[in-house]
Amino acid sequence: MNTRAGNPITMIAGLTAMCVLTCKADMIFSTYDGTTPGSGAFTILDFAGFNYAFAGPNFSVPTDNYALSHIVLNLSRFGGDSTNLQVVFATANHDPIAFLAPASPVVDQDNYIFHPTQAVMFAASTLYEVYIEAIPSGDTYFYWHDGTVASGGMDFRENYGQWESVQDLRQGAIQVFADVVPEPSTVLLLGLGAFAIVIRRHIGHRAR
User: Fold this and answer.
1) Assigned domain for 187 exists
2) Does 107 fall in a domain?
3) Residue range 125-136: mean pLDDT, rounded
4) What is the pLDDT of residue 16?
5) What would the DSSP string read from start to end of the chain?
């Protein structure tokens, strides 16, 4: 098959892929403005026989056509290795869906980006959450700093036991971003539009 840049099939595929892949991720949930978190923090730790984990507030998406892009968490590390922090994308029942990997090690207080380690598609009828836990190491302290939007609080888990609701109207600073995934019919229309443009130019070129 001819794969030169002038080949109509190659150009159609490239134009369609560009239209699909260059869409900017939408922020679908946030508990703060991304700049100024609250003054408090939730402690995620593994120390002296105690292990604390916290789950953030529930959120959902308006349609099924979303895939998880990344999340932003306002965190800091007080003690232990940065690899001892585990961030999990889950349903509101705390059932894990995917682990989230940091783009950079958590050190000083800052916004840290986490990407899913596998593809995650949202369902509009499902509630989701992100929870953070300390991997057992005997010396781990992380802080999940507060958001600035009051809600029904966070869920708390001690020593891998049962999750309990903490109704103190605080929640961790988090932003969730998702990519809109075009429906097959939309991709087909993009392809047809690109096809029409390319064929028209191709015919015009040959007519010269």
Assistant:
1) no
2) yes
3) 94
4) 41
5) ---STT-HHHHHHHHHHHHHHTPPPEEEEESS-SS---S-EEEEEEETTEEEEEE---B--SSS-EEEEEEEEEEEEEES-GGGEEEEEEETT--EEEEEEESS---SSEEEEEEESS--B--TT--EEEEEEEPS-SEEEEEEEB-SS--S-EEEEETT--EEEE-SS--B-EEEEEEE---HHHHHHHHHHHHHHHHHHHHHHHH-
Give me the number of domains the chain comprises: 1
- Per the domain annotation, does 6 fall within a domain? no
198 vs 32 pLDDT, higher one: 32
Note if the pTM is more than 0.70: yes
Whichever domain contains 40, its CATH number is 2.60.120
Structural Rg of the chain based on CA atoms: 22
CA distance linking residue 200 with residue 194, whole number of Å: 10
Strand partners, 47: 50, 139
User: CB count, 10 Å around CB of 64?
Assistant: 13
C-alpha–C-alpha distance, residues 50 and 79, integer Å: 14
Q: Which residues contact 203 (CB under 8 A, 6 or more apart)?
A: none
**pLDDT of residue 51 exceeding 80:** yes
pLDDT at 35 over 80: yes
Structural domain including 42 reads: 24-182
Task: Give me the mean pLDDT over the 123-128 stretch.
Answer: 93
Residue 86 in domain: yes
